[in-house]
Amino acid sequence: NAGVTQTPKFQVLKTGQSMTLQCAQDMNHNSMYWYRQDPGMGLRLIYYSASEGTTDKGEVPNGYNVSRLNKREFSLRLESAAPSQTSVYFCASSEISGEPSSGANVLTFGAGSRLTVL
Amino acid sequence: AQSVTQLDSHVSVSEGTPVLLRCNYSSSYSPSLFWYVQHPNKGLQLLLKYTSAATLVKGINGFEAEFKKSETSFHLTKPSAHMSDAAEYFCVVRGLTGGGNKLTFGTGTQLKVEL
Questions:
Q1: Of B32, B101, B106, which is closest to A99 when you measure between CB atoms?
Q2: How far apart are CA B82 and CA B79, in angstroms?
Q3: Which residue of B has its CA nearest to A103?
Q4: Who is most buried in A92, A102, B86, B106, counting CB within 10 A?
Q5: Helix/strand/coil for B55
Q6: CB neighbour list of residue B99: distance below 8 Å, 6 or more residues apart
Q7: Do A42 and B94 touch (CB under 8 A)?
Q8: Distance between terminal CA atoms of chain B?
Q9: Per-residue pLDDT reduced to its tens digit, B88-107
């Protein structure tokens, strides 16, 4: 019962370095999402993929790119990391196709990836 | 604009006593509301959801929440806290905004349960 799996769990980067956060789900869900969690700010949507082959910007997409590699996998890339991107990143998926707020969407979250940019 | 306010950033209770985590929302239209729980080093897990059916919603692990439109509240309660309830809880609102449906997370309430 893996659910949503994120890697790596922890990462430290220097400013300007690049990295990719990987996410995979084994529930045959249509939609996948990337959020960031910062103290006092709740979760904010970075990008989402409503269905395989599509991606859309969320609230805070600047500095990030995503790839929906197939139905299972949705990666988040930081091309040139900045200290403002220090955060905990969560991947989520849902059975219903669409943005996170569509229909009776219920999100299943991964355990998170803690990223520090020095 | 749509918003959700969790009134307490930290709540501490003794094991066996009631839990009350407060959430107020603002939405121009009839919202859907959710509570998620996050245990340490884990992802968020859905506790319960309100989607315009019964105003008293029962969730997992003995939690429930009541939607009160007149008070724009969706407080989370549990009659008797257990040590395993220690976690962070997020209230989430989904409602219509100028740009369509939007999901907004509260800033979280950290629940501490003491012996």
A1: B101
A2: 10
A3: B101
A4: A92
A5: coil
A6: none
A7: no
A8: 41
A9: 999 998 766 555 566 788 99
Which residue of chain B is at minimal alpha-carbon distance from A6? Answer: B43
**Is the confidence at residue A38, as pLDDT, over 60?**
yes
Q: Which residue of A has its CA nearest to B10?
A: A40
Record: contact A106-B103, CB cut-off 8 A? no
State whether A112 and B41 contact (CB < 8 Å): yes
Can you tell me the mean pLDDT for A36-58?
Answer: 88
CA A106 to CA A23: how far, in whole Å?
Answer: 18
pLDDT digit string, tens, across residues A48-95: 998 888 899 988 999 999 999 899 999 999 999 999 999 999 999 887
Amino acid type, A73: E
Average model confidence (pLDDT) across chain B = 89
Contact B67, B76 (CB under 8 A): no
Under 8 Å between Cβ of B89 and B106: no
Contacts of B34 in chain A (CB under 8 A): 106
From CA B111, how far away is CA A67, in angstroms rounded?
36
Taking the CA of residue A16 and the nearest CA in chain B, the distance in Å comes to 27
